[in-house]
């Protein structure tokens, strides 16, 4: 039976029918897994933001290269910069896809409406943010200059 309100019980089904808890040990191991995946989500978000920042700074550095360096080897500079930009964009897209998948799985786990799962995921996100992303506010402001929340 799927709960439609928040409940507190050690009996919970997470994501798939085979992930059911029927004892305190399996319940606490599931909560620990939710906590760790939530913290890992914040770690991957930090890596994605830093990777995107690195990609945008390398692209802007290549675009603003000195004129004498561009005159000395114009074809090599442009080809190397575009290859680096393409691989950086591909890496950022892959990290975004992985982060999206983890985020949706966490959302689905919270939709089990179990109070312990909810607290474990919110706690993992909080601890993960504190450990991995507390220092990236300046980086995020540079990278995420789009005012649209969905971008």
TrEMBL record:
Single GO cellular component term: membrane
InterPro entries: Cop_transporter (IPR007274)
Transmembrane segments: 24-44, 90-110, 116-132
Pfam families: Ctr
Localization terms from the record: Membrane
MF GO annotations: copper ion transmembrane transporter activity
Primary localisation category: membrane
Membrane topology, as annotated: Multi-pass membrane protein
Keywords (A to Z) from UniProt: Copper, Copper transport, Ion transport, Membrane, Transmembrane, Transmembrane helix, Transport
PANTHER family named in the record: COPPER TRANSPORT PROTEIN CTR1, SOLUTE CARRIER FAMILY 31 COPPER TRANSPORTERS
Family listed: Belongs to the copper transporter (Ctr) (TC 1.A.56) family. SLC31A subfamily.
Protein name according to UniProt: Copper transport protein
